[in-house]
Amino acid sequence: MSIAVRNVTKRFGAFTALDDVSLDIPHGRLVALLGPSGSGKTTLLRIIAGLENGDAGEVRFDGRDMSRQTARERRVGFVFQHYALFRHMTVFENVAFGLRVRSRKLRPSGEQVRARVFELLDLIQLRNQAGRYPSQLSGGQRQRVALARALAVEPSVLLLDEPFGALDAKVRQELRRWLRQLHDDVGVTSVFVTHDQDEALEVADEVAVMNGGRIEQVGTPEEVYHRPASTFVYNFLGNVNLFHGRVDNGTTRIGREASDHVVFVRPHALEIARRPTGANALRATTTHINAAGPVVKVEAITEWGARVQVEMAQERFSELELRKGEEVFVIPRDLAVFTNGRRVG
Amino acid sequence: MVNALPAVATPAVSESALVKWLLVAACVLFLGVFLLVPLGCVFAVALGQGVAAYFASFRDPDTLSAIRLTLLAAAIAVPCNLVFGVAAAWAIGKFEFFGKGLLISLVDLPFSISPVVAGLTYVLLFGSHGWFGGWLSAHNVQIIFAVPGIVLATIFVTFPFVARELLPMMSAQGNDEEEAALTLGANGWQTFMKVTLPNVKWALLYGVILCNARAMGEFGAVSVVSGHVRGLTNTMPLQIEVLYNDYQFVPAFAVASLLALLALATLVIKSIVEWRAAAVATSLERAPL
């Protein structure tokens, strides 16, 4: 089922959580809402679910306006950040809940419920934990039960609020891959909220980057990473070096003077050389070298005192025989120029 | 849920054995003088003239009527406060609305107000010279110095108990599980019965037990509205006073022993409930399905 969000605004008192937000999510896609805390991503998810009502705008499922429908009527599967499992029910009862509360004529028989629940428990690999209570499970197991519970009712869309937020790094990694796999198997339109850019870029088909109640950019992970539409997106999706510059006849020149042109360069798009080449060869002195790891991280300081981070391959590093305190040239291979937050070159 | 681990004193905060035993002895002495001696005294006087005299006390029709009236008042007041308490705790614990602070204060009002004042308020409202007295007597409705007044006063005095027990728990649990139930297709009633209520059942039971104990033992408010009509509007505590003032010590203390037994039973049930609640919270192993 496709989701369309149209001009949704939501205020909590004086705070504007969502400011005229529109977003299209095609059928079967896995979309990440990515942003810092307070950017409105969870509010948007809850409005799609019907757990919150927008002050203005509408939410459409397959073109049908859902704004008047309650969470119950929308048939969404919602996975909460802190799982929200029913603590007095076993894993089996939790997963069966959505089937057992159906009206009498839609309710499956006990045997059907059992079959469906065990099918889902197989899917999340927790069949042997069916009789346990949520308090007896690990965080990752609880999250999987929450997912199975949401999938049991065959939801039209699956919404996940910071699904891995409360888990430790290793379990997180596993569950990410598992969620991607699950989505490919089940194929239900899914939206998940996260503040972790790695998670969004790794798992999602499409990423909507949010900031201050607005959507800054929507695109595939490659698009938002390589062609950020705003300084915010550039900053949020990984490390970046910031310079001031001016544009002469279509050529950007990085300089020391402050100007309204801001130049962004990713650490891996900077080269270190012994000789100056091109329009922007910045004279700099290396201040710190970290060669432990797959890439070498070099910190340098330009002649006007700006700090620069450079990442390079181990081979290039040994070729250069770089040392701390050396004078070198830092040359950007790829740069992005922004004026007033918008990309101009 | 009751989930506190027993405090284990680390060497840094543990006191010497002497201090420990002094503290324990002080507590035991205090409890003995103020609780156990009076309790023993009640039973000693009640049974002072033999078991036969003790049971004979309960053959007095006025005493029997007092016991019935107490049971009736509790049987009405406790369910009323159960419903009210759950509703109030649900509203306050799970929703944000204007005037919430005021509602919390109102729930606590019976705790902070003297029961005698509460009783007097009812007399001023429903008594023959009260605000509604004229209308009530014109329609032949007797509230003050009758059973309805006693029930009203009992409800007033006992209404914070259930709400107060549930509130902290409902606030702490938040709305997540309810929202999860709604997204899974449960309606409001199913959500309440299958999710909200089971999560607070032990606190609810605890509140009901305390509410019942107070409903049966209430003296001040009931005394004001009752009118002390023997055999008609005397509850057990009032009957005890009447008997005592008539120098009928054995019957007075016999009835008092019933209230004391009620208190002991309440304590036992309360302990069981707390133990169950803790057991549910900390249970680690359960039989598989």
Question: How would you sum up this structure in a few lines?
Answer:
The complex is a heterodimer of chains A (345) and B (289). Chain A has 345 residues and is α+β, with helices and mostly antiparallel strands. Chain A is built from 10 helices and 20 strands.
The outline of chain B comes out as globular
The run of helices and strands of chain B is HHHHHHHHHHHHHH
Which chains share the greatest interface? A-B, 32 and 24 residues
Q: What is the mean predicted local confidence, pLDDT of chain B?
A: 87
Uncertain ranges of chain A: none
For the termini of chain A, the CA-CA separation is 38 Å
| Helical stretch tally of chain A | 10
Query: What about the largest sheet of chain A?
Result: 6 strands, mixed
Q: Biggest sheet of chain B, in brief? A: none
Number of strands of chain B: 0
The percent range for strand residues of chain A is 25-35%
- Structural class determined from secondary elements of chain A: alpha+beta
Proportion of helical residues of chain A = 25-40%
Secondary-structure element pattern of chain A, one letter each: EEEHEEHEHHHEHEHEEHHEEEEEEEHEEE
